[in-house]
Amino acid sequence: MSIRTVSTHPFPDQKPGTSGLRKKVPVFQQPSYLENFVQAIFDSVNAPQGATLVLGGDGRYYNREAIQIILKMAAANGFGKVLVGQGGILSTPAASCVIRKHKAFGGIILSASHNPGGPKEDFGIKFNSSNGGPATETVTEAIFAKSKAITSYRILDTADVVLDRLGETALGSMKVQVIDAVSDYAELMESLFDFAAIRALLQGGFKIKFDAMHAVNGPYAKEIIEKRLGAAPGSVMNAVPLEDFGGGHPDPNLTYAHDLVEIMYGADAPDFGAASDGDGDRNMILGKRFFVTPSDSLALLAANATLVRGYAKGLAGVARSMPTSAAVDRVAKALNIPCFETPTGWKFFGNLMDADKVTLCGEESFGTGSDHVREKDGLWAVLFWLNIVAARKQSVEAIVREHWAKYGRNFYSRYDYEGLPTEAANGVMLHLRDSFATLTGKQFGKYTVGSCDDFSYTDPVDGSVSKGQGVRVLFSDGSRIIFRLSGTGTEGATLRVYLEAYEADVARHHLDAQEALRELIRLALDISELQTRTGRDQPTVIT
Length: 543
Ligand code: G1P
Ligand code: ZN
Known about the structure:
Elements: E1 3-7, E2 21-24, H1 25-28, H2 33-45, E3 52-57, H3 63-76, E4 81-89, H4 92-101, E5 106-110, E6 122-128, H5 137-149, E7 152-156, E8 167-171, E9 174-179, H6 183-192, H7 195-203, E10 208-211, H8 217-228, E11 236-237, H9 258-264, E12 272-276, E13 283-287, E14 290-292, H10 294-304, E15 318-321, H11 327-335, E16 339-342, H12 347-354, E17 360-363, E18 367-370, H13 378-392, H14 396-407, E19 409-420, H15 422-434, H16 436-439, E20 443-444, E21 447-454, E22 457-458, E23 465-466, E24 471-475, E25 480-485, E26 493-503, H17 513-516, H18 518-528, H19 530-534, E27 541-542
Parallel strand pairs: 3-4, 3-5, 4-9, 10-11, 10-12, 15-16, 15-17
Antiparallel strand pairs: 1-7, 2-6, 5-6, 8-9, 12-13, 13-14, 17-18, 19-26, 19-27, 20-21, 21-24, 22-23, 24-25, 25-26
Bound molecules: 1-O-phosphono-alpha-D-glucopyranose and zinc ion.
């Protein structure tokens, strides 16, 4: 068993995006591609000799091969121990939990989140720091810089590690400990939520359906929802993780979680429905024939937090990503706690939570979380909701409607234009930036443009500045249109248009969001020239 130094050439395209490096599997399968990036991580994060690393992924195609490569490279780069999930599996929030609980130096998570998996589909890798959260931009930029200058990587010549059996093995002078992927996480959930109350709810006839979408949360949901909380067998559907997610798109929204949506809108629908994504960090919440927008969900969790054991002492503050609706801002105001607006992506919440400035945070993209870990957490959100329902003894719909009546409703929708030619998408953004001066003060029907800008964020903890985070067209009544290019796609460009209109009048709360937002949508298309510049009449997905 010897350490080999292998010479290599840099790949120019290893810039981490919103959440790590994501590429098609064949790109990762090129000789040295994964190795280069892993070496760039190790060279950037300066782990002390003998440090502990956490390793796991969402089980998608290429997960096992990548785990073996990373283990051998960790052994050759001076790590003392790697905690790896059984079978190479760890959901993203569970990885964050394990890093924190075992005080590891950091972790490597293999996932392309909600993107499809399979031999021709997506794969991804990211580094999380000792707080359990995604590496900050300073670190991801350092990794990118190293990747562009790399000349060699180090790897231990040795046989593969058995990943399916729990226990410890040696890899050179490094130990590999295969851990149960679920138990640390399940224990954390039990400490936050009133499992007895939820169990009583579920055994009192309240029916639920959780769609794991053939992704990583299957085993977690089976253990927690069916076994520990006693939901009827079969309450968790699509529970076996598959390398290709059953050919589906493991993204919990009304379009892709169609199996669940059909059940929740069908005859004899259960009382509560939920789904999570490929790596288990996203969530969608549904009542009987009722959809809760992620932005509303965040606001609701904040408003009801003190009903839940883990949050009974109240919230230090809340945070939302810039495109997320301002529903939570209203709750923060009522609770008299700070509310932070960050750029898109979970990495910006970590500093705020480490500094105890926020307890809950979320994004419109079906991500909600708290300071219990440093990732968004799909199953956690589901349990939080169940705990609230158990405490309030009302339906999901009744809870949401009462919330709107008290705070007003932020109608919200996101239009995604996927796979656009990069130049056309960039053209739309450039055109918008050029229009700031002419748009400001202009009136369009009932909307007047108060201001326009390209969102920039100064981190209140470390002072770092992130510019160019999305074009905002802000109207005088609080309505907003945001334009942003995705940082997670692997093909062409994805342009996201976020629409938000505030409505205080209860008599209008029953409206369908698309109906309430019609005028804003027309306006968004008009000012961006999106249709003529990209040749697209229709968005790929509306959420
Ligand atoms: C998308 C979401 C963003 C989320 C990220 C990772 O990023 O919009 O909120 O944090 O996935 O799950 P985007 O493709 O927009 O850059
Ligand atoms: Zn995800």
